[in-house]
Each structure stands twice: as C-alpha cells, then as structure tokens.
Amino acid sequence: MALQAAGLAVRWITGGGAAVEAHSLLQENVGPTNVEDLATFIETIGPSRDDRAMTRMLCAFDDSGVLAVVVGARLGRLNAAMLLYSAVRKDMRRRGVYSALRARVVDALRGEDGRPLDYIISELEPEGILWRHYRQRWDAWIVPCEYRVPNTQGLTPKPLDLVIVPVEQRPGLGEIAEIVREVYEGVYRLVPADSSDEYLSVVQSIRIDGPETVA
Ligand SMILES: CC(C)(COP(=O)(O)OP(=O)(O)OC[C@H]1O[C@@H](n2cnc3c(N)ncnc32)[C@H](O)[C@@H]1OP(=O)(O)O)[C@@H](O)C(=O)NCCC(=O)NCCS
Description:
- The protein is built from six helices and nine strands, in the order βααβββαβαββββαα.
- It is α+β, with helices and mostly antiparallel strands.
- It has a single domain, classed as Aminopeptidase (3-Layer(aba) Sandwich), CATH 3.40.630.30.
- A hairpin with a 4-residue loop joins β3 (65-75) and β4.
- Coenzyme A (COA) binds next to α1, β4, α3 and α4.
- The site of coenzyme A (COA) has 16 residues, from α1, β4, α3 and α4.
C-alpha cells in the first residue's frame, strides 16, 4: 500500500502533541497495561536516547490525527533491531498500513548504524495476529525460553513470546542471554539487568539444549 496515495501523511515523530496522540492510540489499541506510561514513552521516543537503543517512531495521519504508529529501536550492542509497539486505528486495519509503516521503520533502523542488521526482535502474544503473521510471512523463530515483560515503566509484567525474524541471519542459542540483557537494559532501562528478578528467571529458563527451531 502506498500510504501517500491513500491520502495518509507519514512522519517521524520524536515528541510534541503527535507523540501524546500516538501514546493514546497505543493505549486504546494495545491496552493501557501493555504500554509504558506517558513520561517514559516520551523519553523512549525522544531524540536524546543513548546509543544502546536508538528509537524511531513513524506515524500515519489523516485529517483527524494519528491513525497508526510503529515504534522500533536499533540495539547498539547487537546487530539487531526491536519492534516495540504497533497499532492501527480499527477503521483503517487490513489495508496494509502496518506493513507499510513496519517496512519503513525497519529500513531506517537498518541504515542507523552502518552495521549489518542480522535480525529483528519482537515480544508477541502467542497465537496473536502478528505472531501468526510473523510465523507465516517471516519464518519467525520463537526463542526457547519463558520470556517475561519486566515490572517497570508502568507496564504490567506478563509472559509473552520472544520472537526473532531473521534478516541476514538468526542468532544462535548461545546468544539468547545477551539478547535478553540488551532488551532489559537497553529498552527497559533496567541496569544492571541482573538486579531484575524477571531477567534472572528468563535467563534461567533458556533451553539451550533444546531444538534449534521450535515450531
Ligand atoms: C496488528 C495490527 C497493528 C495490524 O495492522 P494492519 O494495518 O491491519 O495490518 P496489515 O493490513 O499490514 O496486515 C499485516 C498482516 O497481518 C495479518 N493480519 C492483520 N489483521 C489480521 C486479522 N484481523 N486477522 C488475521 N490476520 C490479520 C495478515 O497476515 C496481514 O497480512 P495480509 O493482509 O497480507 O494477509 C492491528 O490489527 C492493530 O492495531 N491491532 C491492535 C494492536 C496490536 O495488537 N498491536 C500489536 C502488538 S504491539
């Protein structure tokens, strides 16, 4: 879908009223307990983040304001990016808006660092819309561990699948603990991650002797 051809404006947002609108859209569509509070959200998407998680937020607009948002981050210590949030207003779904925004965010994150982008990380509800799409469309790998969102930034801790879409290559089992650390420290800003009970329990649950691919 060509977003502009559909009459939608698309802009990178790093703060201001559009960022507040994007936060509301996420709260409405993803659920308030699954979105960080507004203060940390503004910090997350702001231009002044450190080089451990360089965040980009792309929004689509119509005359009534922000109707879709995709947020991703380049993880500075890995050849990896993470998709943090996505939402499309109900009346605009199933038209490829998410797919178009996601593609542009991934392109921007690919070019962020002058380094290869090996894979893209997401935290997804098992069997949810995007989980199925990622499995079918992107041959996504469900990391073999009991992954949990930590108790921080106003989020409700909960189990989700840690899902990896290979771009150049998939990480090995031996890299999972480092990936979880980068997510907890870079994205959730829990430094050091070892001080988080959720982090310790996720790392202990990694099944490194399990199969390489989990169907
Ligand atoms: C998930 C969401 C962002 C998708 O937005 P969208 O613009 O409708 O997505 P697209 O039109 O680009 O569709 C992408 C693919 O997702 C899948 N998909 C999207 N909506 C679907 C639905 N209702 N049922 C089944 N599959 C669906 C399809 O595989 C689709 O590809 P296809 O059209 O080629 O078959 C949107 O449904 C949404 O905002 N949901 C609520 C918030 C949420 O769950 N966010 C993700 C977690 S952060």
